[in-house]
Amino acid sequence: MRKTTAVLVGCGGISNAWLNSETVKKKVDVVGLVDLNPAAAEAKKEKHGLIKAVTGSDLDAILRQAKPDVVFDCTVPEAHCPTTLTALKHGCHVFGEKPMSDTMPNARRMAAAAQKAGKTYAVMQNRRYLKGIRALRRFLDSGALGKLVAVHSDFFIGAHFGGFRDVMEHVLLLDMAIHSFDQARFIIGADAERVYSHEWTPRHSWYKHGPSAAAIFEMTDGVVYTYQGSWCAEGCPTTWECSWRLIGERGTILWQGGDDFRCELVDGDKGFTRPIKQKTIPIICPKALAGGHNSAIACFLDAIRKGTAPETVCTDNIKSLAMVHSAVKSAETGKRVTITL
Ligand SMILES: NC(=O)c1ccc[n+]([C@@H]2O[C@H](COP(=O)([O-])OP(=O)(O)OC[C@H]3O[C@@H](n4cnc5c(N)ncnc54)[C@H](O)[C@@H]3O)[C@@H](O)[C@H]2O)c1
To answer: Does residue 209 sit in the same domain as residue 275?
Structure first.
């Protein structure tokens, strides 16, 4: 089968996760590398031995020359919209890093442009492609917990990145919480309708704006989802997947990320607190869905080959992004916000 040809834009830190993935190595010919800083594109070409790749800082010119099937967008959030619009104009499918965009109007513009071009634009949500979350979803589908009524997630990591995040507005909500909110939609199988949130910059913060936040979402189906997190909390970290508490009609699941589950189901109808029994969550997940970036890229390539919609196609992923931007709006206004697309 002919390999898919791709131009990768944005040759910074995360592009290594794309270029190092087995899927890209086996199934993709990287024919171009673009970065505002051409030396970064050259360095990436050298590092990954991409001898066929033309490099430069002008995406339009590189796309005219390389004519790829797809563009991988690994630029910073403000550049996702112009990069995607340019790629679609050249008739390319686009798979771009999270978050879909820096603003909702830009996200809508991107989704409309993909529809008009008849091309697929999807967003990297690699935290859906992990063994634990797939096993959890499978267990919830079994019905053992009953219907979910409330889901809570904690995210606390003292992360010292340097770079664009240090000066970005709403850094936790825009750059990290998108993962957790998208995971929440995936776990609960519902979308968010309203949110109330609060965002702050602690006294000792090494970020300029908003490394800490808390949000309460009202989801469809009456489920309440709460999030609290910080990128500016030293010590006792959670995992990057968050620490989750899921409450269903018949019991509770704690998930600390990875394979770390505890589940207790009610086992009787007498007593102040009812008797409970421990339940093991089987860690079952097809290998193809357990590889983070690697699996997400493989699923995207498979979908464009078959002409189907990938799981994180822009028209779905915009619902996760709307949770982020509505939480930002609520934090800014101090009001509960109705979430619209
Ligand atoms: N999925 C994940 O787990 C994950 C992890 C880290 C970062 N990310 C996302 O990946 C994106 C990039 O993050 P990073 O950590 O690699 O940042 P980075 O700063 O290390 O790299 C970004 C690169 O993009 C280049 N760039 C910026 N604007 C551009 C433009 N208009 N055209 C071409 N190049 C441009 C910069 O020069 C830089 O080299 C962000 O959206 C970030 O949120 C995702």
So the answer is: yes
Rounded mean pLDDT of 146-169?
96
Per the CB < 8 A criterion, the answer to whether 68 and 88 are in contact is no
Residue nearest to atom 4 of ligand 1 (CA): 14
Q: Are residues 105 and 211 in the same domain?
A: no
Pocket test for ligand 1, best of 74, 157, 176 (most atoms within 8 A of CB): 74
Asked if residue 183 belongs to a domain, the reply is yes
Q: How do residues 246-285 score in pLDDT, each as one tens digit? A: 999 999 999 999 999 999 999 999 999 999 999 999 999 9
| Together in a domain, 136 and 198 | yes
Distance 224 CA to ligand 1 centre (A): 33
DSSP string, 40-82: HHHHHHHHHT-TT-EEES-HHHHHHHH--SEEEE-S-HHHHHH
Q: Which region holds residue 146: left if phi is over 0, alpha if psi is between -120 and 50, else beta? A: left
Q: Tell me the pLDDT of the chain averaged across its residues.
A: 97
CATH of the domain at 223: 3.30.360.10
- Residue 101 corresponds to which tokens in the numbers above? 């965009």
Asked if 222 and 205 touch (Cβ cutoff 8 Å), the reply is no
Q: Return the pLDDT at 221.
A: 87
Q: Is 189 within a domain? A: yes
Note whether 164 and 260 are same-domain residues. Answer: yes
Task: Please list every protein residue whose CB sits less than 6 Å from any atom of ligand 1.
Answer: 9-14, 34-37, 40, 74-77, 79, 83, 97-98, 124, 126, 163-164, 175
Overall number of domains in the chain: 2
- Name the residue at shortest CA distance from atom 3 of ligand 1: 126
Distance (Å) from CA 72 to ligand 1 centroid: 11
pLDDT above 90 (res 71): yes
- Ligand 1 centroid, distance to 16 Cα (angstroms): 11
Closest ligand 1 atom to Cα of 11? 39
Q: How many CA atoms lie within 13 A of 327 on its CB side?
A: 35
Residue 1: is its pLDDT beyond 90?
A: no
Taking only the tens place, the pLDDT of each residue in 112-149 is 999 999 999 999 999 999 999 999 999 999 999 999 99
Residue 303 lies in a domain: no
Look up the domain containing 108 and give its range.
4-123
My answer on whether 67 and 183 are in the same domain is: no
pTM of the model: 0.96
